[in-house]
Amino acid sequence: MTKVKNINTWLTHLTNESKTSISVDCVIFGYDDEGLKVLLIDCNMPPYEGKKSLLGDLVQQNETLEDAVIRVLQRRTTLTDLYFEEVKAYSDPNRHPLGRVVTIAYYSFIKISDYKIHDSEDKHLEWIPINDIDKLAFDHRLILDESYKSLRKKIRNHPIGFTLMPEKFTLMQLQNFYETVLQIKMDRRNFRRKLNSLDLLIDLNEIQNNVSHRPAKLYSFDFKKYNRLMEIGVLDFAI
Amino acid sequence: MTKVKNINTWLTHLTNESKTSISVDCVIFGYDDEGLKVLLIDCNMPPYEGKKSLLGDLVQQNETLEDAVIRVLQRRTTLTDLYFEEVKAYSDPNRHPLGRVVTIAYYSFIKISDYKIHDSEDKHLEWIPINDIDKLAFDHRLILDESYKSLRKKIRNHPIGFTLMPEKFTLMQLQNFYETVLQIKMDRRNFRRKLNSLDLLIDLNEIQNNVSHRPAKLYSFDFKKYNRLMEIGVLDFAI
DNA sequence: AATGTGTGTGTCACTTTGACGCAAAGATAA
DNA sequence: TTATCTTTGCGTCAAAGTGACACACACATT
User: Fold this and answer.
1) Do the first three CATH levels of B17-155 and B160-231 match, i.e. the same topology?
2) Omega into A93 within 30° of 0, i.e. cis?
3) Which fold has domain B17-155?
């Protein structure tokens, strides 16, 4: 009987030769009234000098990948309730000039105003509008593209968008958000009908003021109701 | 200016201390007329003696994760056109008794009849019906559950199912497949209408014979048309 | 008082979905 | 030969959802 070497069956020792470095890379999407942006950092590493890259770091021995992601995300933010999703692992042996580094990509999505960048130490850190991004260092352009695709899919079925709105928002602000992120146009009346049928918006009985046109009504999102419906599994959230 | 240590910005050397072992684990789903099964192997590793585990292996220095998956899948099969999907990375520092092993989980889905198991050397390898699986070694039960969830989602929007049918199949065989995998009941007439509206089945103008009831018509799947429609991006595949 | 600008609303035609019953085809048993 | 069994194949109806589309209103500005 041929002994099939397999890490899940027989005892094997883990040799150093087969160990590799693991990193996490985060596509940090940000939203503000200017649109959708991604947080990028200057990369000084040959041969990618002058290019920008995603934020990431090596995973330490005693932490999970998620721990590492939280570390990367929290280094420059005061956010505690961080949202992130795993996208994919990238493992081309030549993807990193320092040697073999397998990276797991994640994306996050935050309100730009909640993200405090300490200018003095982070001159090289910048929010770049998604449509202005050209080539990136490493395979980060690929990672970005696949993450963005993943985000667009996710956002239609999960209320991520609402966490990025101000506490009180108008329906037009919300629609702009979806149009910007999804890069599509939506019909105003149909959008409103859809949102109405979800029945997850709270009409605050307030209106905008100081706008030079008919003021819009303000709403907030009913997170409580959303969570309740999700728990009992009765929610068809789709925008 | 505080230098932010970051693998994507400044040169750092990759120390051995931060390197870890990486493995891939494959949830190999199989389908035959008895239903949906998973290929499992006996695990002799303390403390999991007597339990079963997924198939997996360590990732070698010069291969991608996908290479490793193909290696694991092809060890016991003659299949060449392997389908697999990445599910998620599992990185709990204590998930493996041999030491730290980060694993990336994949699932595959094949026709059981296409999978040749060499009995003599693989007595410990077995197809287990999905509903008969109890606890597994390591965190493999969790991996299985999340993979199965992922598969159920995928299968409604991708024609994976058709590759698991015999070349010629009846609509009832196809419906059974979806009912088995999704673990739901479907209305026969509505199912047929749906399939018909997709317009991807070829009516072979043949019927079953030697069945003790009205013989069903035989169909095959129009992979050519499917691929053509996918390329031009005009296909709303949903079952 | 007129203008500009974004807000708020309803309808119609079309498609999709879920629920549902009955006759036909072949094999088998009486 | 006939009756019975089992599975196939088909159509309709009501309900819900989708996409397209136009006009009056409210506020600020001039």
Assistant:
1) no
2) no
3) Nucleoside Triphosphate Pyrophosphohydrolase (3.90.79)
Q: Which residues contact A191 (CB under 8 A, 6 or more apart)?
A: A171, A175, A178, A239
Find the residue closest to D5 using CA and C1' atoms: B213
CB–CB of B8 and A45 under 8 A? yes
A18: contact with B, CB 8 A cutoff: yes
Which residues of chain B make contact with A88, given a CB cutoff of 8 A? 86
pLDDT exceeds cutoff 60 at B3: no
Contact A59 B91 (CB under 8 A): yes
Locate the domains of chain A by residue range. 19-155, 160-231
Instruction: State how far the Cα of A105 lies from the Cα of A149, in Å rounded to an integer.
Output: 13
Residue numbers in B near A100 (CB within 8 A): 61
List the single protein residue with the shortest CA to C1' distance from C19.
B187
With cut-offs at 50, 70 and 90, classify the pLDDT of residue B120. Answer: low
Whether the CB-CB separation of A24 and B41 falls below 8 Å is answered with no
User: For residue range B196-231, what is the model confidence (pLDDT) as tens digits?
Assistant: 999 999 999 999 999 999 999 999 999 999 999 988
Q: How is domain B160-231 classified at the CATH fold level?
A: Arc Repressor Mutant, subunit A (1.10.10)
Q: Per residue in B57-91, pLDDT tens?
A: 999 999 999 999 999 999 877 788 899 999 999 99
Q: Nearest nucleotide, C1' to the C-alpha of B212?
A: C27
Sequence-distant (≥ 6) Cβ neighbours of residue B92 within 8 angstroms: A64, B139
